[in-house]
Amino acid sequence: MVQAFPILLAPAGSLPAVEAALSAGADAVYVGVRSLSRGGRTGLSPEAVGAAVSACRRAGARLHAAINAIPSSGELPAFLASLHRLRDAEVDEVILNDPGVIALVRREIPSWPLCASVGLSVLNPEDARAYRDLGVDAVVLPSAVRPEEIPLIKKASGLRIEVFAYCRPEFLLHGKCGLTGYVADGDEGRTASAKRGGSCRLVCRNLPVPAAPHSLEDELPVWIAAGADVFKIEGRELSPPAVAALVARFRTKLDGACASSAGG
After folding, report:
1. How far is 114 from 213, CA to CA, in rounded Å?
2. Which residues on adjacent β-strands are paired with residue 3?
3. pLDDT per residue over 159-198, tens digit each?
4. Which CATH number, 3.40.50.720, 3.20.20.330, 3.40.50.620, 3.30.450.20, labels domain 7-181+213-263?
5. Residue 6 φ/ψ, nearest 5 degrees
6. This model's pTM is above 0.85
């Protein structure tokens, strides 16, 4: 199926959430994978990933996998083998957040679409061009990037541009958190970051910072005109009913914005 842009990319932390996102109108769904996403404490099992792919195929949608673990040297063979299994399961695209991993996966699985995660903090045309040269097909921009900056980024790189239509408020640049408490206990008493065996505790939720979510729902026409290709909703931790409600809301808003853009 050839998908027209812009598309609505929905989160799912379980198979019921995948089904909820699809039933609410998502064009694509992204999931975490156990042992490969957020330090291995959340995500679908390999068997569940296969079922999620099948659910997406039935709905005419795509499945993306968010792989934000960063392997050590000794972990690279097993890590790469896991990615080959995801590709064999027909996961459509993988979201990666480490330059070395991007280069490795592009070399070892050359035909697999790759997306540079928001964790890489692509902010300008040169950033985007650098990741394009490493082999990515798309970039997720931090919410600090404004719509007027997108045309230059897109022209310089030729990449697909993903933006967050809905996410936690960004008082620190996405992917650059240095908060105390980000480091958590890992295996065998060792400390590890959220990307290497630990798990982000989201301590930002307890700080006196703005709590209202960042949302583009009333600005979608501006972002469409700027060239955003994918509107992404954050929330793999959300329940299936919450996923369905958010996706349905943005489906209606995005369809209306696209209709207005086409008519104008």
Report:
1. 27
2. none
3. 999 999 999 876 656 556 655 555 554 555 555 555 555 4
4. 3.20.20.330
5. -80, 155
6. yes
